[in-house]
Structure formats: structure tokens, C-alpha cells
Amino acid sequence: MNIRPSLVISSALIAASLPAQIAFAPIGAKWSYKQAHWGGPDTALMVIEVTGDTLIDGRTCRKLQINEGMHLGCHQLAQFLSESQDSLFYFASTTGQHHLVFRWNAVIGDSWSTPVHQFGQHDTLDWTVLDTSLVLVDGLLLRSLEVNVGSRQWSSFGFGGTVTERLGNLIAPFAWLYGVCDGEIFAGLRCYEDADIIWQNPEVAKCTLGVGLDEHAGPRTVIHPTMVRASEPIMITGTVGSVAVHDATGRRLSTYSINGDRTISLDRPGMYSLWFTTTIGEMAVGRILVH
């Protein structure tokens, strides 16, 4: 697959009202994500596809389906997505309602809330727009939002950072993470494709795994505990390498060397991801919930 160029246009050049655009993906669109487990080797490729349309409460919804990889227990995938007035909604079967996910025409400072129901837990995610931009991919301008996401009940976590039309979020797709789950997780968008766009992450050689670094044989790393209070010690035991700490938006906060045992602490509540890399390039991802 060829990597096609993309260009980010600063929000300073964009008027307050962004041009109307197709906010979601057409039938046949595919997202390819790498899967990983925090305590073991990376597993497989997760491929999500728009398989068709379905009518729910008078709304035409795109249906998302996982057609490759394991069905993750730690996330709730927004399986049915619809558009209305330049906004994207997901249908929650537990509430029987369509809930707002993204407002593509939002401006800096706009905010909204999304109810999340999974694993018997109930939560509300509060979104705030920090910046906006346009991204040029294959000649098509896609709107992009830089968002911060907060959890009211500290049960589920939305992936903030940069969210772009069609591409979604580079960390995880249209899904939310259950805060205390230690199962399989998404570990980065490798590529997206539909009839109009082919986008590939410039940090990977191709959509499939097994090219370049050995991405299947992840390092054996143990984190204890995985749920702590702010400033409490966290013990990391692993092979020789490094660990990078990222916040819920994907921003790297710090990096530590690892050679056996290492103790760190996190000062603020939130969901953090720990990215482990050994000296020979093996990778794994772990998570810490600070409350």
C-alpha cells in the first residue's frame, strides 16, 4: 500500500464555521489497529469495517463490525453510528437512545457530554475542544479536533487528543475503555482505507504486522498495582529497556529506563498508558488508573 501525503492546516487559518463535509465513513471503509496486551506479547491485527446501513428509530446508521482480530473485552465499540446536523452519534442499546460523540463543526471552547454504558457500569464523558484544523488527505479536506476528555465517574475513559473525520482517533477507534480492565487493548491505528482515501500511519511499514521490528513477541512486564491513588508508588518489573508514560490524550509525559525493578508515581487522577520497549525493539502496552 502506498503512503499518500497528508497536510495539516493550522486552525488559525480556519474560519469559525468550518465547511460541511462527509463526517463519517462510507460502506466498505476499514480501520486496521494493532492489538496488544499489557502483560504479554502483542497479539494480532484488529480490522473494523463499515458493513452496511441499518435503520434505528428513524435514523440511518452505519454498522461497524470487527472482521479480524479478537473481540476486545476492555472496550465498548460504538457499533451503530449516525449523522445529524454535522454531528456524529452512536446508538446505545442499553439506553435505547442516540448519543452525541463528536461535533465536527465545533470551535475552540465548545463542549458536550457522552453517556457510556458497559460492563454494568455507567459513566459520562465530558469533551472540550482545545483546537481545530483541516487535514488534507488524498485531496480531501477532513476536519480535525484536538479534544480533552474527562470522566465523571472514573469508570470509562474516552481517548482524547486528535480526532479526525473518517480516521477517528489514532489511539483507538469509536470506542471507550473500561478503566479497570486488563485485557486486550487497541495499540494504534496502522491504516484506514475507503473508496476515496487511503491513509497509512507513517510510523509503520505497512498495514499488516510482522514487518520491521518484531511486534509479536512483546516484553514480559509486570505493573503492580494497576489502580492507585495520586502519588502512590507503582512498581514496574520488566526486561531491559524503557517505559514511556502517556496521558489519556496520548501526550507523552515522561520516559524511564527499565532494568529489573523500577518505582514511579503519578500525581494527578486519570487513565495513563505505559508503553514498554526493550533494547531489541519488542513492545507492549500497560495501563494505570489513578483515582
**Strands, count:** 23
Question: Please, how many helices?
Answer: 0
Strand content: over 45%
Mean pLDDT: 79
- Kindly report how far apart the N and C termini lie: 43 Å
Radius of gyration (Å): 19 Å
Q: Give the strand order of the largest sheet, numbering strands 1, 2, ... along the chain.
A: 8-7-6-4-3-2-16-17
Tell me the structural class: mainly beta
Order of helix and strand elements from N to C terminus: EEEEEEEEEEEEEEEEEEEEEEE
**Which assembly state applies to the chains in this document?**
single chain
Largest β-sheet summary: 8 strands, antiparallel
Form type: globular
Percentage of residues assigned to helices: under 10%
- Poorly predicted tracts of residues: 1-21, 211-218
Notes on the structure:
The protein is mainly beta. The chain contains no helices and 23 strands. The strands form 4 sheets. It has an 8-stranded antiparallel β-sheet, with no helix packed on it. Strands 1, 9, 10, 11, 13 and 14 form a 6-stranded antiparallel β-sheet that branches. Strand 20 and strand 21 form a beta hairpin. The protein is globular. Mean pLDDT is 79; it is low at 1-21 and 211-218.
Write the layout of secondary structure elements.
Blueprint: E1 6-9, E2 30-37, E3 45-56, E4 59-68, E5 75-77, E6 80-84, E7 87-92, E8 97-103, E9 111-118, E10 121-137, E11 140-151, E12 156-158, E13 161-164, E14 168-169, E15 175-178, E16 184-193, E17 198-200, E18 222-224, E19 227-228, E20 234-246, E21 252-264, E22 270-278, E23 283-290
Short description:
It is built from no helices and 23 strands. It has strands spanning 6-9, 30-37, 45-56, 59-68, 75-77, 80-84, 87-92, 97-103, 111-118, 121-137, 140-151, 156-158, 161-164, 168-169, 175-178, 184-193, 198-200, 222-224, 227-228, 234-246, 252-264, 270-278, 283-290.
